[in-house]
Design a protein that fits this description.
Elements lengths: L1 H14 L5 E5 L7 H8 L4 E6 L4 H18 L3 E9 L3 H8 L5 H7 L6 H15 L3 E5 L2 H10 L9 H4 L14 H9 L5 H24 L6 E7 L9 H8 L5 E9 L15 E6 L7
Parallel strand pairs: 2-5, 2-6, 3-4, 3-5, 6-7
Antiparallel strand pairs: 1-7
Helix pairs in contact: 3-6, 7-10, 9-10, 10-11
């Protein structure tokens, strides 16, 4: 019922010349949805940067995935920040029908908005027999990095290390996203302030690692993550390019604004595409 109501609102808004979102190219010019699909069809990797509680993000993730499947078929691979690497076996078992939805949701550590926002993607992968990658670092290890830096990873067992990107961890503290995080964490102690962006970086590099570990030439990998993880061609993108500079990567960023006729200047040249959603769009939580 909730999904039907949302789709009705979107249809009514567009049909009455009052769109709830617009898509813009890197140069700030608007682009139609179908043209964007045509352009990203040739990308190796697509990073969809969502706003976690925005229904337009989640609806478009599913629509884009469906449309890319029509082009790529079995060569489409899915992955998401919302699933941690140590839950890969559970996720795969669900996709293959070896466990039911209740066993999966009871056993895996799922985000509280899984049922409404991510289950449709997982079920689409299950229906089409597509691989879905649990790409994120288990949160307990990101927490360790926040408390003690990358050095704490040295004490992990081989099995634990297999759930994280290989060490040593490359890190560029001068990337604008990590510098912004330090500004946001000015209330922290000096040690934790330095580790705050490192806790973000260990997520970024781990997601990049598992994307590449499950991708081969000729395939297309679409990855769903928070917008901050791939904004400004940094985060996951930076780590992917460190491993393979020749990868064709498209980033989709989601932002909200009072007016969506134009994209703000600070969003130009920061992503391949930007979806701007009206501020007054309902939230999923």
């Amino acid at each position: 019922m909730k999904k039907f109501l949302l789709l009705s609102i979107i249809f009514f808004a567009f049909s009455n010349g009052n769109p709830v979102y617009r898509i813009f190219k890197e140069n700030g010019k608007p682009i139609k949805y179908q043209k964007m699909i045509k352009q990203i069809a040739n990308a190796d990797i697509i990073l969809f940067g969502e706003l976690h509680n925005n229904p337009i993000s989640h609806w478009l993730e599913l629509q884009i995935t469906k449309d890319l499947y029509e082009i790529k078929r079995e060569n489409l691979v899915l992955g998401a920040e919302m699933f941690e690497s140590d839950n890969q076996k559970l996720l795969t078992a669900y996709l293959k029908g070896k466990i039911d939805n209740k066993m999966f949701t009871d056993s895996a550590r799922l985000w509280h908005n899984y049922q409404t926002d991510y289950k449709p993607l997982v079920d689409f992968a299950k229906q089409k027999e597509l691989h879905f990658v649990a790409s994120n670092i288990p949160r307990r290890y990101a927490s360790k990095v926040f408390k003690g830096g990358f050095e704490v990873l040295d004490s992990l067992s081989l099995r634990e290390k297999s759930l994280i990107a290989p060490q040593p961890i490359a890190y560029n503290a001068e990337l604008s996203g990590y510098k912004s995080m330090k500004k946001m964490g000015m209330h922290l102690s000096s040690e934790k302030l330095d580790n705050f962006p490192k806790a973000q970086a260990i997520k970024d590099v781990t997601m990049a690692h598992f994307i590449l570990a499950n991708f081969k030439k000729g395939q297309q990998f679409i990855h769903y993550n928070g917008a901050y993880h791939s904004n400004n061609y940094e985060g996951i993108v930076w780590y992917l390019k460190q491993k393979d500079p020749n990868l064709e990567i498209a980033t989709i960023y989601t932002a909200s604004a009072d007016k969506i006729r134009r994209v703000s200047k600070d969003l130009k040249a920061s992503n391949t595409y930007t979806i701007v959603v009206r501020d007054d769009m309902t939230k999923t939580y």
